[in-house]
Task: inverse folding
C-alpha cells in the first residue's frame, strides 16, 4: 500500500489548517454560505437533510487496518456510531457538526487520510478495481497509476473550478469491475503490440440525468505522457465545457455536442502543446510508487476448502474471487444483510473488519463500488476461520452479485437532493427474495436503486434499475431493465409508467419470473433480457 | 471611466512585480485585435486567450475577469498566456476571494484586484498555503515529484 | 401556515422558527405568515440559521405541525430507516406520520 512521505503528509496537514481557517471565517460570518459552500464541498462536507455529511476519500478504494479502525473510531466519537460506504468507494458520515470537522480531518490526517475533493466541481477521488493487485486476470496493478493521478489531481491549480464534477477511473484488466466507461475519464492500462505498457483513454461517460457510455479517445498513451495527456483532456473541458446549464455541464455533454472526433482533435492539439511544457512528472516517480504495491509474501498452502458445511461452501462460492496466487482468494465481506441498509457499517464492524484484515489479509482492505468490503489476499486455508468470525458479527451474508447485493443510494432518508427513499425498497426486496428462496435461483442479478435522477445508485447500469421520482408530492418509482456497468456496458431502458413502493416491489418480482420462465441454459437475467427484449417483460408488468 | 473596462492602479490590492503599473483602461479582446496601439486588454471567461498570442509583445497588462469565482476558465487563460511567453502583468479582477489566491498565483497571475478588498492577514496566509506542490505549471516552482528525484 | 426552517450553522441540526427563536421540534413552529421572508433574512444574517427556507405546513387538531412535503417531514423526524435515531425513538407510530 502507498505510504505518504513528508511531502504528501504536509499537503494533507496544510489542508486541515486551511479548512480550519475557512470554517472559522464561516462561523464568524466573513464568508457567506454561497462563498463557503464550494469550499466545504471540496472538502467533502455537505449539508444534508438532518445534519452536515462528511465524505472521506478512500483513494482507489484501498485502505489498511489502522485506517479502517480510525474510520470506526470517528464514527463513534463524532457521529452516531456508523458510516455509509458509497458507490465511489468512499465513506460518508451522516451526523457531523461543522465545528468538529477540522478536528475530524486532523484525526484522518494522522493515518494518511483526508476528504480532499470528495465533492465540488473538481477532480474527484480516483476509483479503481477493488481486486487490483489480487485478481488473476489483470495485466498489472492499476493502483500505482491511480496514485500518480491522485497526486496530480490534488489541488490542481487550473482545474479546481471546472464546469462540473469530474470522475476518473483507472483499471488494468479486460474485465471491468469499476464501471470504467461510465466515468468522465476512464483509463485502462494496456499493452501495445510491441509489449509496452501504456494507457487507453475513454472520455465522456457518466450516469446522472443523461447517461452516456464513454467512447475511446486514444488507443495508447505512453506512460511518460500519461499526466500530460490527462491535463490536455481537462484543459479542453475546462475551457469549453458548458457553464450555462448545470445539467449540461459534465464532459459527456461536451463530447456529445462536439462529437467524439472533434473533441479528440482538440485534445490532440492541446496535448501537442502540453508536451512542450514539461508538465509530466519524472518517470522515476512511477518507479518510486510501484514498490508500495508490490505483492506481499504469499505462501503456498491448501488450494481447496472443506465443503462439508454447506453454509460455508455457499459463502465461498458466492463471496470469493480467484486470486493470482492459487493458495489465496479475495474474500468479499457483504454489507447487505437481509433487511439491512446497503453499505452501512457500525464502528464496531469497521474495527472488526480492520482486525480481520490484519489477521488474514496482509493488513489490507478494499471498498467496492457496490458498497461491500474486500479482504484482497486471504489464504484458502484461513477461509473457514474468517467466515466463522464474519458470521458471528452479521457480516457473512453469502449474496455477492445476487439480487440481495443491491446498490442503494441514501435516498430521501438522508439526502437533500433525493425525491424518494431508496433504502426501504432495498430492505423489503432483500427480505422478500430471501424469504421466498428465489435469490439463489436467480443467480447473478444486479439491482441498483437511486432516489433521484442524479443516479448515485447507478440505476442506469442495473440489470434491473429503480429510479425514485416525486409524483405530486408522493414517492414513485420507475423500473428499467438491461443495464450493465461491466465490460459489456449498456444503459437500462425504462419499462413504462412508474409504480408505488409496493407496486415496484411486485414489479421486480414479476420481471424475475419472466426471466426464470424464459431463460435458456446458463443465461443470466441480463442475457435473457438481451435475447428476448423488453416486450415479454412489459407484457408481464402492464399487459 | 464609467464605461471603460479595467481597474485603476489603486484598486490593485496585491502585486508581485516591481515595474510601473499601466495607468489606463484595458480594451476588450476584439478591440485589442483591431487596434494596433492597445497595451492593456481584458479577457472575459468566454474569450479565447490564444487570440491574443500574436499581440503579446505589445501588451503590458492582461486583465482576466472573474465575474463569478466558480467559473474557472480564467485559470486556463492565464496559464495559456504564460505558456506562450507573456511576461507582462497578469491581473485577476472581479470575484476573487481569499481561497482562490494560491491557485491563481500558480497559474501565472501576479496582480490581484478583487471587487471586495480582502483581509490582508488572511490573504498573506492564503498565498503561502502550500509549501510544496504536485503539479508543474509555469510558475517555476519545483514540484514534489521533481524534488523527490533530485530536481 | 407558513413555517421557517433551516439548519443550525454550527451543528447542522434541523431547526424550526418558533416566533422568538429556533427549536429542533417542528411542533414548536410558529406561523410566520407574511413576515417569513423578513425574519429569514435577518436570522440568516445574524448566523442563527443556515440555508433557511419557507415551507407550507398545517396545524393539526392536536396542535402538532405537519409540513406539506414528505422531505420536510423526514427532516422533522429523522431517517425512517433508523427509528432509533429519530426525535421519537420510542414512538412506534412516529413513522406513520411521515407517509
Result:
Amino acid at each position: 500500500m502507498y505510504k505518504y512521505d513528508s511531502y504528501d503528509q504536509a499537503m494533507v496537514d496544510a489542508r486541515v489548517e486551511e479548512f480550519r481557517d475557512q470554517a472559522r471565517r464561516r462561523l464568524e460570518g466573513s464568508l457567506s454560505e454561497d462563498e463557503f459552500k464550494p469550499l466545504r464541498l471540496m472538502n467533502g462536507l455537505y449539508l444534508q437533510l438532518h445534519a452536515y455529511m462528511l465524505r472521506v476519500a478512500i483513494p482507489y478504494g484501498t485502505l489498511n487496518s489502522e485506517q479502517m479502525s480510525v474510520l470506526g473510531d470517528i464514527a463513534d466519537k463524532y457521529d452516531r456510531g456508523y458510516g455509509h460506504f458509497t458507490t465511489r468507494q468512499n465513506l460518508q458520515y451522516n451526523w457531523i457538526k461543522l465545528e468538529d470537522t477540522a478536528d475530524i480531518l486532523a484525526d484522518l490526517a494522522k493515518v494518511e487520510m483526508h476528504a480532499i475533493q470528495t465533492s465540488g466541481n473538481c477532480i474527484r477521488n480516483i476509483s479503481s478495481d477493488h481486486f487490483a493487485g489480487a485478481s488473476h486476470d489483470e495485466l498489472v496493478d492499476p493502483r500505482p497509476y491511480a496514485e500518480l493521478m491522485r497526486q496530480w489531481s490534488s489541488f490542481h491549480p487550473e482545474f479546481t473550478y471546472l464546469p462540473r464534477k469530474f470522475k476518473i477511473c483507472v483499471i488494468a484488466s479486460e474485465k471491468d469491475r469499476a464501471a470504467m466507461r461510465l466515468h468522465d475519464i476512464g483509463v485502462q492500462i494496456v499493452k501495445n503490440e510491441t509489449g509496452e505498457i501504456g494507457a487507453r483513454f475513454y472520455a465522456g461517460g457518466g450516469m446522472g440525468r443523461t447517461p452516456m457510455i464513454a467512447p475511446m479517445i486514444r488507443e495508447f498513451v505512453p506512460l511518460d505522457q500519461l499526466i500530460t495527456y490527462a491535463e490536455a483532456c481537462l484543459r479542453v473541458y475546462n475551457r469549453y465545457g458548458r457553464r450555462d446549464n448545470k445539467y449540461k455541464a459534465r464532459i459527456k455533454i461536451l463530447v456529445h455536442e462536439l462529437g467524439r472526433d472533434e473533441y479528440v482533435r482538440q485534445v490532440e492539439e492541446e496535448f501537442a502543446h502540453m508536451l512542450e511544457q514539461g508538465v509530466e512528472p519524472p518517470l522515476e516517480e512511477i518507479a518510486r510508487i510501484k514498490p508500495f504495491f508490490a505483492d506481499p509474501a504469499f505462501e503456498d498452502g491448501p488450494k481447496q476448502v472443506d465443503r462439508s458445511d454447506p453454509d460455508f461452501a455457499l459463502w465461498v462460492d458466492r463471496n470469493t474471487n480467484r486470486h493470482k496466487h492459487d493458495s489465496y482468494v479475495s474474500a468479499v465481506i457483504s454489507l447487505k444483510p437481509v433487511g439491512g441498509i446497503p453499505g452501512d457499517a457500525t464502528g464496531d464492524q469497521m474495527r472488526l473488519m480492520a482486525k480481520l484484515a490484519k489477521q488474514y489479509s496482509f493488513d489490507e482492505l478494499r471498498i467496492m463500488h457496490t458498497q461491500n468490503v474486500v479482504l484482497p489476499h486471504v489464504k484458502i486455508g484461513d477461509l473457514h476461520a474468517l467466515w466463522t468470525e464474519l458470521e458471528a458479527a452479521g457480516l457473512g451474508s453469502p449474496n455477492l452479485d445476487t439480487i440481495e447485493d443491491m446498490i442503494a443510494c441514501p435516498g430521501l432518508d438522508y439526502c437533500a437532493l433525493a425525491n424518494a427513499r431508496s433504502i426501504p425498497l432495498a430492505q423489503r426486496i432483500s427480505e422478500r427474495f430471501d424469504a421466498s428462496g428465489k435469490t439463489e435461483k436467480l443467480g447473478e442479478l444486479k439491482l441498483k436503486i437511486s432516489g433521484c435522477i442524479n443516479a448515485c445508485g447507478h440505476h442506469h447500469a442495473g440489470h434491473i434499475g429503480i429510479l425514485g421520482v416525486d409524483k405530486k408530492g408522493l414517492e414513485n418509482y420507475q423500473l428499467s431493465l438491461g443495464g450493465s456497468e461491466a465490460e459489456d456496458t449498456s444503459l437500462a431502458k425504462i419499462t413504462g409508467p412508474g409504480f408505488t413502493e409496493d407496486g415496484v416491489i411486485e414489479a421486480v418480482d414479476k420481471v424475475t419470473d419472466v426471466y426464470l420462465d424464459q431463460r435458456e441454459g446458463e443465461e443470466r437475467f441480463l442475457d435473457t433480457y438481451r435475447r428476448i427484449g423488453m416486450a415479454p417483460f412489459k407484457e408481464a408488468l402492464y399487459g | 471611466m464609467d464605461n471603460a473596462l479595467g481597474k485603476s492602479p489603486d484598486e490593485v490590492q496585491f502585486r508581485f512585480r516591481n515595474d510601473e503599473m499601466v495607468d489606463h483602461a484595458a480594451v476588450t479582446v476584439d478591440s485589442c485585435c483591431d487596434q494596433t496601439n492597445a497595451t492593456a486588454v481584458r479577457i472575459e471567461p468566454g474569450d479565447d486567450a490564444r487570440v491574443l498570442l500574436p499581440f503579446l509583445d505589445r501588451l503590458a497588462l492582461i486583465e482576466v475577469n472573474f465575474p463569478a469565482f466558480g467559473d474557472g476558465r480564467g485559470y486556463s487563460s492565464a496559464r495559456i498566456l504564460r505558456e506562450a511567453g507573456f511576461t507582462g502583468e497578469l491581473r485577476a479582477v472581479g470575484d476573487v476571494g481569499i481561497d482562490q489566491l494560491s491557485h491563481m498565483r500558480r497559474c501565472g497571475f501576479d496582480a490581484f484586484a478583487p471587487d471586495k478588498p480582502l483581509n490582508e492577514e488572511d490573504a498573506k496566509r492564503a498565498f503561502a498555503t502550500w509549501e510544496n506542490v504536485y503539479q508543474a505549471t509555469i510558475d517555476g516552482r519545483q514540484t514534489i515529484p521533481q524534488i523527490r528525484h533530485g530536481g | 401556515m407558513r413555517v421557517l426552517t433551516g439548519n443550525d450553522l454550527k451543528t447542522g441540526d434541523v431547526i424550526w422558527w418558533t416566533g422568538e427563536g429556533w427549536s429542533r421540534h417542528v411542533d414548536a413552529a410558529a406561523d410566520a405568515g407574511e413576515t417569513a421572508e423578513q425574519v429569514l433574512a435577518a436570522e440568516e444574517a445574524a448566523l442563527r440559521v443556515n440555508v433557511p427556507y419557507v415551507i407550507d405546513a398545517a396545524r393539526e387538531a392536536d396542535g402538532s405541525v405537519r409540513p406539506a412535503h414528505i422531505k420536510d417531514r423526514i427532516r422533522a423526524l429523522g431517517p425512517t430507516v433508523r427509528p432509533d435515531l429519530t426525535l421519537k425513538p420510542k414512538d412506534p407510530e412516529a413513522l406513520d406520520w411521515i407517509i
In short: The CA atoms of residues 232 and 269 of chain A lie 8 Å apart. DSSP finds 17 helices and 20 strands in chain A. The mean pLDDT of chain A is 97.
